[in-house]
Amino acid sequence: MSPLPHRGEPDPASSDFELLSAWMDGELDQAQARELMERLRGDPSLRSRFEWLQVASDALRSHEVAACHLPELTNKVGQALRSEPALLAPRALAASALRRHVATGMTLAAAAALLAVVALPQLRGAGETQPPAPAVAVGGNPPGPTTVRLAQPLMARDSQLEAYFRAHRELEYNGVMPAAAAYIRSSGEPDR
Amino acid sequence: MNERDVDWQLVTRVQRGDKQAYELLVAKYQRRIARLLSRIIRDPADIEDVAQEAFIKAYRALPGFRGESAFYTWLYRIAINTAKNHFAAQGRRAPTHSAADPDDAENTDEGLALRDVATPDALLLSKQVGEAVNRAIERLPDDLKTAIVLRELEGMSYDEIANAMNCPVGTVRSRIFRAREAIAADLRPLLGTRDDQRW
Q: Which CATH class, in words, describes the domain spanning B3-113?
């Protein structure tokens, strides 16, 4: 461990140590902090200084806490860690968590689009007595207007909507509503 | 960034395989954990062993830490459980408060009694640390003293301190660092080892 400089002695590395002190306080931006942590990896004197700056910080807040300093503990834990495997798995877990969040978001977006396109128009038309389908009055055919149903399905379709449905079908089993997935899919299918 | 972000940054580095980042977390929190354990376990040698075991257990459990709570809160629970296991392994029960002790409820944690019965050696060291800190602060120039007190005791950010002291943030950073250095220099003879540590 590198000793602390005596009072008044110039310390060429003091700007690094000053950065370390600011980092402890959360006062560096992300880029500066990343750079400092890289330097900490390769500089034992910087790590030593970190520990002693922490001791000073603890002592100012509570001398009882600072008095519990175990000078060999960090060293002992470091030695014990050498026989421990490095932790690498969480990266993959984090990536899968991200995929899960994206999939959930897309599923919800597809469900919301379906609701807007299918359910809302039907709800609006529920109270009407007249059929909601477009009707054409054909003159000369008494006693009343003849209703002509269009061959097209009621639901308007376009290519963008079809893309939504396709995305929904691909992702629906990753979503948060597996029980509703089958219903949503059948509602979204064109009439057969 | 804040202090919690700093911990999280270190945690994510450990989770990506950087063991040295974990040593920084140990260096940061070992005194608070040792202080906690000293309120449960009387033997100083046992305190160090249990603290070491708690830090190793925490390292192994770190892949499951997602940052929902502060790192120290999570570590604290592991230390408490390690202390309980320590007593169980010795065939002893961890000191607990009885139900007839309601006044001490705030000093209990998960049924464990957190005593404030320090050994004479620990009391003496604590007193010496307090005196050393006070001496160091007294010797500091006023601008360093004000900056470090506003930071450590009032918890102000560098921006807030710069406003209060009417000086640039860079000056605040420098003053806080120099104050910490001076205090650390006075503490090292009390708390360091005779031989330099690995760092």
A: mainly alpha
